[in-house]
């Protein structure tokens, strides 16, 4: 039996970023079922940071995370965790009200937002259809960032190990029980004991809780698809922004390594699994791009899907379960788990060790009760 102070279950961005903060304070061991970090949601995202998603608390978490992405923690010579890249949101005549509401929300958190008209939008993304048949008004957020998901995972893993923490791969948890003094966690190869277990199992977090006899949060996993396609030869796409319709039944698109990535922003409920793209969602992505722009998607060169997990209020959860001693929730990161991960790790550290609530979170309007699981249980 291996012993630790804290067992973190799940090697996605939630688990590894929190474990990196716990490790300087307590012996921390991270258990991941797969052979590498970020195999599931954390390795399948669009890796973007922007204020066009989530509610006020999510935007607060996003704002509080920014400095981690712009000024990496400990090594001035390390490659950057993110690159500046604007985000552009656009509305058709029917969705103008949504654009106005989004502008108000975004301006609360950023001074980098400006309203732009059809001529500016066309100059920024020349194939965008503008005018009566297309985009009539837009918002440009010049504070957006393209994140490097792999580097984020590896940087957190390095910080964890540097503080004496450990990561165990191929360590899928098959049983969790409290023996009166602490948690006993079984995997196929080894058993572990610790007074505190952190449930950062992504789409599997409720299943893991059920295994431990802990009341689930009511998580819903929603599949989201991304396709990649080649732009027409000679078209310069590198400086294009992350482009997103303000309406939910639209699409987003961004340049990446010489190709364009696009998502139909699908929200298909799914069991926790190794999500795979569905033909319909891939075709929908291509169709929505072709409807809104003059681009054609002749061949889908890349495709993947991943699961975004939400609780009822769509705000990520961190905090001890009210019904089980030492069982700590870190789940429901939704569609913003990368861009909120530094702030969520900070919140998890404060809640787990009962520390003074960080000013960085308070200044952005994020308080413990916004994140604690109790809010979901009425
Ligand atoms: C298509 C798509 C686009 C996205 N775009 C963005 C974006 O632009 N910006 C952004 O911030 N976010 C984005 N997201 C959301 C983001 O990817 C997620 O919020 C985030 O990755 C969730 O991290 P996680 O660590 O909670 O989950 P995961 O990365 O899924 O990690 C959970 C881990 O737990 C492990 N696990 C589960 N059960 C067990 C067990 N029994 N034993 C051991 N290990 C276990 C799993 O193997 C997995 O590695 C996107 C997501 C998708 C799918």
Short synopsis of the structure:
The protein is an alpha/beta fold and 378 residues long. It has ten helices and 22 strands.
Would you write up a description of this structure?
The protein contains ten helices and 22 strands. The model has no long low-confidence stretch (mean pLDDT about 95). The protein is globular, with a radius of gyration of 21 Å. The chain is of the alpha/beta class and about 375 residues long. The strands form four sheets. Strands 6, 7, 8, 15, 16, 17, 18, 19 and 20 form a nine-stranded mixed beta sheet that branches. It has helices spanning about 15-20, 55-70, 95-105, 120-125, 150-160, 205-210, 280-290, 340-350, 360, 370, and strands at about 1-5, 5-10, 30, 50, 80-85, 85-90, 115, 135-140, 145, 165-170, 175-180, 185, 190-195, 195-200, 220-230, 240-245, 250-255, 260-265, 270, 300-310, 315-320, 325-330. The protein has two domains: about 1-45 and about 150-220 and about 315-375, FAD/NAD(P)-binding domain, CATH 3.50.50.60; about 85-145 and about 220-310, D-Amino Acid Oxidase, Chain A, domain 2 (2-Layer Sandwich). The structure holds flavin-adenine dinucleotide. Flavin-adenine dinucleotide (FAD) binds next to helix 1, strand 15 and strand 20. Flavin-adenine dinucleotide (FAD) binds near residues 45, 200 and 334.
Task: List the main descriptive attributes of the protein structure presented here.
378 residues; D-Amino Acid Oxidase, Chain A, domain 2; 10 helices; FAD/NAD(P)-binding domain; 2 domains; alpha/beta; binds flavin-adenine dinucleotide; 9-stranded mixed sheet
């Amino acid at each position: 039996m291996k012993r630790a102070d804290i067992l973190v279950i799940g090697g996605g961005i939630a688990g590894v970023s929190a474990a990196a903060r716990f490790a300087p304070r307590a012996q921390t061991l991270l258990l991941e079922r797969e052979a590498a970090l970020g195999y599931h949601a954390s390795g399948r995202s669009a890796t973007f940071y922007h204020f066009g998603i989530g509610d006020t608390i999510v935007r607060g978490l996003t704002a509080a995370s920014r400095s981690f992405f712009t000024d990496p923690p400990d090594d001035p010579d390390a490659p950057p965790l993110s690159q500046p890249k604007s985000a552009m949101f656009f509305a058709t005549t029917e969705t103008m009200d949504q654009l106005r509401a989004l502008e108000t929300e975004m301006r609360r958190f950023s001074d980098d937002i400006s309203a732009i008209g059809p001529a500016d939008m066309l100059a920024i993304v020349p194939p965008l259809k503008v005018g009566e048949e297309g985009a009539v008004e837009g918002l440009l957020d010049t504070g957006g960032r393209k994140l490097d998901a792999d580097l984020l995972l590896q940087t957190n893993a390095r910080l964890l190990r540097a503080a004496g923490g450990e990561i165990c791969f191929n360590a899928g948890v098959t049983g969790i029980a409290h023996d009166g003094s602490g948690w006993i966690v079984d995997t196929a190869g080894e058993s572990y004991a610790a007074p505190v277990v952190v449930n950062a199992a992504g789409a599997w977090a409720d299943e893991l809780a059920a295994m431990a006899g802990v009341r689930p949060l009511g998580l819903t996993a929603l599949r989201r698809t991304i396709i990649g396609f080649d732009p027409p030869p000679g078209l310069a796409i590198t400086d294009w922004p992350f482009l997103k319709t303000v309406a939910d039944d639209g699409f987003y698109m961004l340049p990446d390594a010489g190709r364009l990535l696009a998502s139909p922003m699908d929200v298909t409920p799914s069991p926790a699994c190794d999500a795979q793209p569905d033909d319909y969602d891939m075709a929908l992505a291509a169709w929505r791009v072709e409807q809104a722009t003059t681009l054609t998607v002749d061949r889908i060169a890349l495709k993947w899907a991943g699961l975004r997990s939400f609780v009822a209020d769509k705000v990520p959860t961190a905090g001890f379960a009210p019904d089980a001693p030492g069982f700590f929730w870190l789940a429901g990161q939704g569609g913003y788990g990368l861009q909120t991960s530094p702030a969520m790790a900070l919140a998890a550290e404060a809640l787990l060790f009962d520390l003074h609530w960080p000013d960085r979170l308070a200044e952005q309007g994020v308080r413990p009760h916004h994140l604690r699981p109790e809010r979901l249980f009425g």
